[in-house]
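One record is kept unedited as follows:
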Amino acid sequence: MVQYKDVPDYYFKKAFALEKLGKYEESIECYDKILEIDPRALNAYHNKGVALEKLGKHEEAVKCFDKEKPKEKISPEKEAQIKHEEGFELLKSGKYEEAVECFDEILDINPDFAPAYANKGAALLAVYDDDSNYEDYESAIVCFDRAIEINPDDSGALFNKGRALQELAQFEPDSPIQRQRIHEDALECFDKAIKIDPNNARANFAKALVLIDLHRIDESIKCMDDALKIEPDNVVFLDFKGNTLVEIGKLTESFNCFEKITQIDPNNARAWYNKGTSCIAVGRNEEGTTCLEKTMEIDPTVLKKAHFPKD
């Protein structure tokens, strides 16, 4: 008589139940037992990889996804999908160059696999640094363009293409017309991404940044407000909006931004400094001094970059 505990299906069911309880380590033990019984149980490798991913063990997850690749012949679409999970894990774990290589392998298997183009572009953007050049960002844009050609509703690819275009614009310092054209192309990308996914706070904020570059300040502030409706406690959004308001002389409104940051993050020395300078600029000297003292208490180095706004 076969013992029920020796049947892989028992361990699959037990693993699924454990995962619903968030007990991923115990579910992994079940998948290991399944693989002892049947080393060809490819879905056990896959599920074990997903569980490892939940535990943040990305390298071990990649190994499982790699073992998951079946020996028998499968369709290019299925093979690309299996390998894409491996590439995505490399991307998430910060191994960008390895991720790019993996996505290239996927595109050799299936040249029409849109997610591989989108994620290869994202990996390329992450690799680039201060030493990167015009051609580097163009190569990322080529990836995003191909992803969008295959799937026009890929809001992530549109968003990242806009980001890449913004980086590209910095290489046109002596050509204002060309730089403006690139900014406008980026704006179009962000607009399309927002139309597809209106709740994408990052896209709304990115649109605000490009509108600053295009000197459309009022529109930019509206986009910052849209981003803050989605993520009201985002300190980066609040800080940028506050500083933009300072630049156009709306110091009372900027004060509200910096005050909210200090409520969210009481140890944010920069916010206390900005709040203090806004107070002093509108004649609230005592309150401003208190804020600057708080800045000094948290991080004295912030005051070395003192820049007091004027009326």
Residues 176-196 form the longest helix (21 residues). Residues 191 and 207 are 7 Å apart (CA to CA). The chain is about 75% helix and 0% strand.
